[in-house]
Design brief:
The complex is a heterodimer. Chain A is an alpha+beta fold. Chain A has four helices and five strands, in the order αβαββαββα. Chain A is elongated and about 100 Å long. In chain B, 45% of the residues are buried. A three-stranded antiparallel beta sheet of chain B has the order 1-2-3. In chain B, strands 6-7-8 form a three-stranded antiparallel beta sheet. Chain B has a two-stranded antiparallel sheet with strand order 4-5. Chain B is an alpha+beta fold. Chain B starts with 12 loop residues before the first strand and ends with a helix. Classes of the chains: A alpha+beta, B alpha+beta. At the A-B interface, α1 of A face α2, α5 and α6 of B. Chain B: Its EC number is 7.1.1.-. Chain B: It is a peripheral membrane protein. Chain B: NDH-1 is composed of 14 different subunits. Subunits NuoB, C, D, E, F, and G constitute the peripheral sector of the complex. Chain B: It catalyses: a quinone + NADH + 5 H(+)(in) = a quinol + NAD(+) + 4 H(+)(out).
């Protein structure tokens, strides 16, 4: 009988202790961010989808069309094509397409790239209603930046 | 048979628990045969999100399978990374620098804390309490920010590489982690006051959902489930890998065999993981984070290799059979939650439905890992 009463009293007290904690936190500053009105800065190492890097000297891409990224990709989402041009050493990039619908953002392509021609972008607001919105022509994106 | 069909002999009916929509990430269906509010029989139905990870492993090169490992148990992805890279390093004979091993332990233990915090929130949510989830997510957010600053991603990490880790940590990470350890230690008494000592939680968990040590052995349950039944088994202690032998930590074991015991094991494990991270930060050696001679195309010699790691849910083992080519001949993944779920059918017989849900929550199920 005494144990029963003791349990009722201690049990009710435990509920008030919990309520006390929630009331205390109620008056503390809000920890959430009102997205999209406020955003947090991205960390420098954030791994978004890939992007071509501009060569500062020539203003063109650093890509040498070796196809290592294409081979390293587990999901086959990169297509690289190039052609030989007269007067230019090596191949010239004509197409660099990323099928982002298949990409799992593992970053193996960036690691495999010897001339460091691709990097991670900081885009994270990626929403679209059509599949085509996720087939990125990275060469065009680089040219649009210039 | 319709949901309320009656048979002549006894008045039982079938109740479908789940599945939710296939687009949600955790879909488990349990077919319950009920006698009123009591469960007569429970049959978990699996395979709704089977993605043939083992077969995918056999069709990709050794390195290309790496991103898959984080997608099985998305809550403790780094331990899965660790299991797979360790077995391939064992097979190919790659030595890992000490600093890289320390970084692996630090990040994997932080990930374990975040996994337990999410389980804590979701478990109380299963029992009908909403607010503890928000407190847990507040703390978990700090871990995600820390891990994002080194790995670059927030959930499905792919940080470990054969022979080391992807990139080094900086001063900000060390300072941030130390601040986080202090913060979580200060908040643990709050969690216990808010949840553990709550009379409603205690009456719903104490002496509910007994899982005996024999049952754990029978079904191969590992992790907090078997430690809540009095079996002292932790891969980190009993089959040490990486640099775990260098740290002083305890394996929490509770003898009560009920849902409360499993709850307490996980809450104590958070504290132990913080201890490991703290010691690792103190002892962190200098040096490279990647082995020097890692071949670009890995071709392990012919043979059969196995490596087990302790994840937040139990022992995860990877067995690879190599035929000397650039893809594995066979890749077998031993997932802890599959064994932990298997005992649910036997354990919940004769229980009330809400008690069975408490038992299921205390198993800490991650469905993508069961189906693989």
């Amino acid at each position: 009988m005494i144990d029963y009463l003791r349990e009722i009293i201690s049990g009710t007290w435990s509920l008030f202790v919990g309520l006390g904690i929630t009331i205390r936190y109620f008056f503390q500053p809000v920890v959430t961010v009102q997205y999209p009105y406020e955003t947090l800065p991205m960390t420098p190492r954030f791994r978004g989808h890939i992007e071509l890097v501009k060569d500062e000297e020539t203003g063109e891409t650093k890509c040498i069309v070796c196809g290592m990224c294409q081979k390293a990709c587990p999901s086959n989402c990169i297509t690289v094509n190039g052609e030989k041009r007269e007067g230019v050493k090596g191949k010239v990039l004509t197409e660099y397409t990323l099928d982002f619908t298949k990409c799992s953002l593992c970053g193996l392509c960036v690691e495999s790239c010897t001339p460091k021609a691709i990097t991670f972008s900081k885009d994270y607001n990626l929403a679209g209603v059509r599949k085509e919105a996720y087939i990125f022509d990275l060469k065009k994106r680089l040219e649009a930046k210039n | 048979m319709s949901a309320f069909a009656k048979s002549e002999a006894n008045e039982t009916f079938v109740l479908n628990l789940g599945p939710q929509h296939p687009a949600t990430h955790g879909v488990l269906r349990v077919k319950l045969t009920m006698d009123g509010e009591y469960i007569v029989e429970a049959e978990p139905v699996l395979g709704y999100i089977h993605r043939m990870h083992e077969k995918m492993g056999e069709n990709r090169t050794w390195a290309q399978f790496l991103p898959n490992t984080g997608r099985m148990d998305y809550l403790h992805a780094l331990a899965y990374n660790h299991g797979y890279v360790s077995v391939v390093e064992r097979a190919a004979g790659i030595a890992v620098p000490e600093r890289a091993e320390y970084l692996r332990v630090i990040t994997a233990e932080l990930n374990r804390v975040s996994s337990h915090l999410l389980w804590f929130g979701a478990f109380i949510l299963d029992l009908g309490g909403f607010s503890p989830l928000l407190y847990a997510f507040d703390d978990r957010e700090h871990i995600l920010d820390l891990l994002e600053s080194v790995t670059g991603s927030r959930l499905t990490y792919c940080y470990f590489r054969f022979g080391g880790v992807y990139n080094d940590i900086d001063e900000n990470f060390v300072a941030g982690t130390r601040a986080f350890i202090k913060r979580l230690r200060d908040r643990m008494p709050m969690y216990h006051n808010l949840v553990t000592k709550n009379i409603i939680l205690m009456t719903r968990l104490k002496e509910i959902g007994p899982i005996s040590a024999e049952m754990c052995r029978k079904y191969g349950a590992t992790g907090p489930v078997c430690r809540g039944s009095g079996i002292n088994f932790d891969v980190r202690k009993h089959e040490p890998y990486s640099v775990y032998p260098e740290f002083d930590f305890e394996v929490p074991v509770y003898e009560q065999c009920d849902s409360m015991a499993r709850y307490m094991v996980r809450m104590d494990e958070i504290e132990q993981s913080l201890r490991i991270v703290e010691q690792a930060l103190d002892k962190l050696p200098d040096g490279p984070v990647m082995a020097e001679k890692v071949p670009k195309i890995i071709k392990p010699p012919k043979g059969d290799y196995y490596h087990a790691v302790e994840t937040a849910r139990g022992s995860f083992g990877v067995r690879v059979v190599s035929d000397g080519s650039n893809t594995p001949y066979r890749l077998k993944l031993r997932a802890p939650t599959f064994s932990n779920l298997s005992l649910f059918g036997e354990a919940c017989q004769g229980m009330l439905l809400p008690d069975a849900l408490a038992l299921m929550g205390s198993l800490d199920l991650v469905i993508p890992e069961i189906d693989r």
